[in-house]
Amino acid sequence: MPRNLKEEVVFTAIMAGLMVLVMTAYNVAMAQGFSNGLIMAILSGYPLGLVVAIILDLLVVGPIAKGLAFKYIINDYMRKRTVLIGITISVLMVLGMVTCMSLFGITVEGKLAGGHVLATYGHTWIFNLIVALPLQLLIVGPIARGVLGKMQQATAKTEAAAKTEED
């Protein structure tokens, strides 16, 4: 878990950056198939999706997911096993982000008009969840936590060296 603003920014950048890239590629491929314009469509949709995802992560979904997790789900047993806390928050984050970003996706694609909005949203939501949850738990989450762990180790070494110099 990030312990300060710098760690939170790096962790969120890695997490959101990778998740949005893969999910953008997935959704574009699902919508238009593997065509000549696939790479350009992914690259053109990525920046706006990334900005929206980071804002949602930091200001809406992240605080709600963490609040729900620590208030209603995480118990004393889980507190002794930090990996369970991370998995719990990751699952809640995926549920929240898929909910919001699926709406964002169908809005950007202009699919909010018509009589099948709920069906379109439900289809988009479930198909995004099917990809996003394993992507987060098995690939992106471990990468982001690995980088965060290395960052925290480097900070601890620097602080220890500084303390040794003071003594």
Automatic annotation (TrEMBL):
Biological source species: Lactiplantibacillus xiangfangensis
InterPro entries given in the database record: DUF2798
TM spans (from-to): 9-26, 38-61, 82-105, 125-148
Protein name: Integral membrane protein
Lineage summary: Bacteria, Bacillati, Bacillota, Bacilli, Lactobacillales
Domain of life: Bacteria
Entry keyword annotation includes S-adenosyl-L-methionine: no
Keyword Transmembrane recorded: yes
Keyword annotations: Membrane, Transmembrane, Transmembrane helix
